[in-house]
């Protein structure tokens, strides 16, 4: 079963795994597709050798790819944990710099896959991983980077893993292929300034949605209004609707355009008309 073959640049997913063979094969597939698509590909894991071996079996000239810089395979100690701790803010800044470098080098995209077992080590800063996963969504919103965070459910506490999953717009699991129709896709827009949403926004991804809306307000640089285009949003539950309403009430003027009649009714029921600066527009 192909679990991750519908991923696109801009996606950031929590992938729960429980089988090493499947994990290594799927990761090799993501990296291989990226190499063929002229993307830069980055893999971080405790032991990159098995993944590289599977890439080689797919016909990739590993040494040449590593030497050219199109492929990077590193351990957490040389990536997330460089310096002996997890610096969440520094890592976010690193990905922004890496994006700019990839563009300058002519790559058409950047794919990042991380095995996240390092987070179970008692390293300084690991307690900020949930915050990092939420804020990391800003790295993906321009549609240039794809991120897959692989969490082994055999070793992560279920409650902890659930909180980490909530920080991602999308998810996949051992018997659950990634489905863009039921996941949330978030992209930045310039005209009008704001965000474009597609798929489904609900309790499972509300933290990712909130982080992105907060970020787009923080970085609006004089833009008077933030617009959320929800024309492609198939479904939004009460939790997602409350994220929108809270943003309008606390962050500034917000226009939500392209709403289905159901979403319009939900927002109005929850008090949209009482929030100054909030405009809700039907798209149907």
The termini sit apart by: 37 Å
Q: What are the secondary-structure elements, in order, as H or E?
A: EHEHHEHEHHEHEEEHEHEHE
Helix proportion? 25-40%
Helix/strand-derived category reads: alpha/beta
Shape: globular
CATH superfamily of the largest domain: P-loop containing nucleotide triphosphate hydrolases
**How does CATH name the architecture of the largest domain?**
3-Layer(aba) Sandwich
Radius of gyration: 19 Å
The tally of structural domains comes to 2
CATH-derived topology of the largest domain: Rossmann fold
Which residue ranges are poorly predicted, with pLDDT under 50 across at least 5 consecutive positions? none
The largest sheet has its strands arranged as 3-2-4-5-1-6
Percentage beta strand: 15-25%
- Average pLDDT score: 94
So what's the CATH class of the largest domain?
Alpha Beta
Give the tally of β-strands. 11
Please report the number of helical segments. 10
- Give a short account of the largest sheet: 6 strands, parallel
